[in-house]
Amino acid sequence: MPVRNRTITDETILRLKSEGLSFREISKQLGKSLGSVTGRYYRLKGVRHPSQLARDAQLKRNRELHRAARKKQRSLAAIQAAIELRQGVAFSVAVGRARAAGASLDMIGTCCGISKQAVHKKWRQRVNSAIERPVLRRSLQ
């Protein structure tokens, strides 16, 4: 939650509460609603309700599960690339598929038993040589 500067009203709420006034008395004195004074006081004090804590914990668990699922998917793509390479699939095709599935060069290299730099070098050489091939066209005369 973004931090904002305390206003005069915020300081007044904190001062009156420290003097022992109830939230109802403070709200009448400031001309604000009871709920706004109570909520503002607890936000200023940094108090978090159990429902907020439970919701934050659930969001954190969901993020961790989602992150783990993505990492597993990427790892499986790297493993699949290593399997395809052993089966004779073209290097650029296997690595291209794994990269499209989100696998890093480091993951692919680990599964293949080579460094990520070696994977990059082989992959780029093959991709560049495929791009640079001259295309034969018939001239229209």
What does this structure look like?
The chain is mainly α and about 140 residues long. It is built from seven helices and no strands. Helix 2 crosses helix 3 (about 35-45), helix 4 (about 50-85) runs antiparallel to helix 5 (about 90-100) and helix 4 packs across helix 6 (about 105-110). The mean pLDDT is about 85.
Keywords:
single chain, 141 residues, mainly alpha, 0% strand, rod-shaped
Please describe the topology of this protein.
Blueprint: H1 8-18, H2 23-30, H3 34-45, H4 50-86, H5 91-100, H6 105-112, H7 116-132
Helix pairs in contact: 2-3, 4-5, 4-6, 5-7, 6-7
Short summary:
This protein has 141 residues and is an all-alpha fold. Helix content is 73%, strand content 0%. It contains 7 helices and no strands.
Using only CA atoms, what is the Rg? Answer: 31 Å
Helix proportion of residues, in percent? Answer: over 70%
Overall pLDDT score: 87
Count every helix, treating DSSP H or I runs of 4 or more residues as helices: 7
Task: State the secondary-structure class.
Answer: mainly alpha
Distance between the termini: 70 Å
Shape: rod-shaped
Biggest sheet details: none
- Order of H and E elements: HHHHHHH
Beta-strand proportion? under 5%
Number of strands: 0
Low-pLDDT stretches are none
